[in-house]
Amino acid sequence: MGKLFVYLYSLSLTCFFLMQTSLLKILSVISPKLAKKALLKMGEGVTMTQNEKFKLEDWGPSFYTWTFVKTSLGNIWQSLGDEAFVGYPAPDTPLYTLDCKKTSMSQFYKGSKPLVLDEFKQVVKDFSAVADFLVVYIAEAHATDGWAFGNNVDIKKHTNLQERLAAAQVLVKEDPLCPVVVDDMTDITASRYGAMPERLYVLQSGKVIFKGKRGPWGYDPLAVRAFLEKFN
User: Fold this and answer.
1) Contacts 24+ apart (CB under 8 A), 212-219
2) For 201-226, how does the pLDDT look when each residue is reduced to its tens digit (9 = 90+)?
3) What's the rounded Cα separation, in Å, for the pair 65 and 84?
4) I need a labelling partner for 1 at 20 to 30 A (CA). Which of 17, 90, 128, 163 fits?
5) Contact at 8 Å (CB) between 184 and 94?
6) Which residues, 6 or more positions from 19, have their beta carbon under 8 angstroms from its beta carbon?
7) What is d(CA 169, CA 66) in angstroms, rounded to the nearest whole number?
């Protein structure tokens, strides 16, 4: 049943992205003001309008490009490998520490203490006594040679593990307050957790107990906060 939902949801996303991009492209030609209004509304949904680092001009036009469509469809295709379902065993995928030592998801379980995948600083601070946190750095969502934003970090698509590890060091400089590991170059973690371009999970004793919606629209730290309050 879980895999059927993955397939149906992926099909609906494919239709949505194709329709959205087509409409935005048409609006940008016949009514640039209306296109801008639509982009700002989209930006609210993915918190882009709340990020002081980016202006509309940095990210907005990218949403009606072929690169956006190709990247989105690639993410959807990869996420068809999603095997992480609430109440079922969490995929024990291979990971690498930042000093290039091979490990796996299960190595970060500590008894029955919940393990939160991905991170957000305030939640880490507020719930560090309740749960452990882990950032799994996967393929770069906005590589400069892919679906790029203006005024963003200069990271190209990873072609080998060393490049991915180096890119993860950029994230570490932001002080995530928890361990950071990287997916291997087969992108197996991103695939089996349906995590492209981003997703939040809570694991406990080797099982998935919370599964957030697929980002960017479904990325919701507040939902994780509400879930963790049950353990506080």
Assistant:
1) 214/13, 214/79, 215/46, 216/45, 216/46, 217/45, 217/46, 219/46
2) 999 999 999 999 888 777 888 899 99
3) 31
4) 17
5) yes
6) none
7) 30
